Amino acid sequence: MVRAMTTMRRMLERLALDVVFQPIVDLERGSIAGYESLGRAHALPGLPPPPGPAEMLDLAHADGMLLALDRAWRRIALERIAEWDGAHEELWWFLNVDTRGMDHPRFAPGFTRRVLAELGIPRTRVVIELGERDPSLDAARLARLAPGYGEQGFPIAIDDFGAGHASLATLLAIRPRFLKLDRTLVRGVGADSLRAALIASLVELGARTDMAIVAEGVETEAELAALRLCGVRYAQGFLLGRPGALPIARAA
Ligand code: G
Ligand code: MN
What we know:
By secondary structure, this protein is an alpha/beta fold. Helices cover 40% and strands 21% of the residues. An 8-stranded mixed β-barrel has the order 1-2-3-4-5-6-7-8, surrounded by 5 helices. Strand 5, helix 6 and strand 6 form a beta-alpha-beta unit. The site of manganese (II) ion (MN) has 5 residues, from loops.
């Protein structure tokens, strides 16, 4: 364990952490509703490239450094938002939280809230995405974790809904403000009436419960057209905008 800790620490010393932002488009208004921040890492000159962000989180988790990495990325994202935000009062900012970090002995809630206060960003515009990188993130665990963010005034999104652990039980446990449909649900929706019916029924559910639907991983015009027909309000994906540095415009 001690050796493993050293490995991740050394890796973090040999790279530069960075954050990119991907637009989330409001299909009704035809404008950008907000951005999701995504952690990235770059090698320092002359050193080999680091693993991808998901693998880095797993390695950090194994070494007891997940909380530190997850928070470092969140802080960078919030600093970039604070630098750029001023004129964009209407935007939502979606931040990923790797819930495995909450198992760390030094975990205490309030980090994100403190950084926001320090930077002067209103809490109501920052959405906490609870994802499913956490294999033990079942509905019961989420139900214990989510109220902490809810009570602090953060809207909550369930990330990757329809994949892995992000199940109907999760939805019932969390009752989120945003439901982000995993790209595996969205893929090929233009040519699959069962997929379309499923998504339309989630839109109906959202309308009844004041829960906004965000389609993730939209890559083709056919998918986008089908999502509009289903009544999906928000969409994100390479078709609409690649992750990049702020400010990013919507593609085409
Ligand atoms: O689990 P989460 O939704 O947070 O995953 C975000 C990841 O998905 C990012 O690394 C981002 O680069 C990637 N991504 C964003 N848009 C698309 C897309 O349209 N297609 C695919 N395959 N990946 C995407
Ligand atoms: Mn996400």
